[in-house]
User: Which sequence fits this backbone?
């Protein structure tokens, strides 16, 4: 009898294992669509927020600087939102192609916990960690040398 209780407790404590692959796909699709709807609902469809339509020549120099800073931040946020919507659309395509949750670097499955926390993850934890270490190393070396590690731009020749 104690074994039955343990087994039923195990199932109820971890409902994710009880989900079918189809349920997981539907849950991921819903999560992605909700994220997309939220971004679009924040005004992504508008060309520029109302505060950006104000003329910059109002007030003194400090007011203009503040207005310009607000303008730049709004444009930056809008660009980030657009990038995120594109990433969501890409993830939805991957769901359709049945490649969602597969690491783009090594081809292994991306862990369910990682996808739940970061639905737009393209790399598994191991490959993401390696990428971040490589980027940090390159940044460090470039900072010490004062120039990029790559000495020529693609398609350009050096003397």
Assistant:
């Amino acid at each position: 009898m104690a074994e039955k209780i343990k087994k039923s407790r195990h199932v109820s404590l971890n409902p994710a294992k009880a989900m079918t692959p189809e349920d997981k796909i539907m849950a991921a699709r819903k999560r992605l669509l909700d994220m997309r709807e939220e971004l679009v609902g924040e005004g992504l469809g508008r060309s520029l927020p109302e505060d950006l339509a104000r003329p910059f020549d109002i007030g003194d120099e400090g007011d203009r600087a503040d207005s310009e800073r607000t303008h730049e931040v709004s444009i930056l946020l809008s660009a980030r939102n657009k990038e995120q919507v594109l990433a969501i659309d890409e993830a939805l395509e991957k769901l359709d192609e049945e490649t969602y949750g597969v690491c783009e670097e090594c081809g292994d499955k991306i862990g369910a916990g990682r996808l739940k926390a970061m639905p737009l993850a393209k790399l598994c934890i191991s490959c993401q960690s390696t990428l971040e270490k490589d980027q940090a190393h390159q940044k460090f070396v470039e900072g010490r040398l004062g120039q990029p590690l790559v000495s020529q731009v693609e398609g350009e020749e050096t003397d």
